[in-house]
Amino acid sequence: MQILIPKEQIAERVSELGRTVSEWYRDRPLTVIGVLHGSVVLVADLIREIATPHQIAFVRASSYRGETTTAEELTISLDLLPDVTGRDVLLVDDICDTGRTLTALSKAVRDRGAKSLRTAVLLWKPDRSQTPMVPDLYAFNIPDVFVVGYGLDYNGNYRHLRDIAVLDESER
Ligand code: IMP
Ligand code: MG
Fold first, then answer.
1. Which entry of 45, 93, 94, 97 is annotated as an active-site residue?
2. 9-142: which CATH topology?
3. For residue 125, with 0-12 CB atoms within 10 Å meaning exposed, 13-18 middle and 19 or more buried, which class applies?
4. What angle do helix axes 7-24 and 40-47 make, rounded to 10 degrees?
5. Rounded to two decimals, what is the model's pTM?
6. Active site residue 97
């Protein structure tokens, strides 16, 4: 596996994202909502770089990737979502690929009465976009390669890797 983004660079950018979030939401009722499972590593690191009080919550999304690596039917679940009425929401995912996940979740969270909504991702693949979604915050934009690590998986594996690595065809 080839390392695309080493852990030191990830840490540096996540800390910068945390400073931006802290400025945006100072003295506002912020809820950071992570998208399971891919965002767990980013959420854990990002919230410790946010200097303003906030709550965290999770939602679930899956697009049945892996075997085919094409985004198919998207399933979302808001079962775990607390009341966000009147709260400012930062929706956090590992990656914005086609943009379908963040588009669907943004609408669902707004429909639950959030006062404002922004999106933050570790990685953005602008070349893969199939929607107008542009993340409000992203740590890195990357080319159209399949990556794993720092929360991102291939068929459930590799989420624990500290770096972002490219998984090539022979490894899938
Ligand atoms: P979307 O296409 O923007 O809706 O992204 C769907 C989901 O696909 C993301 O939340 C990731 O879980 C997954 N995904 C997209 N690209 C990659 C990748 O390169 N590696 C691992 N997972 C990915
Ligand atoms: Mg995901």
1. 97
2. Rossmann fold (3.40.50)
3. buried
4. 60
5. 0.95
6. yes
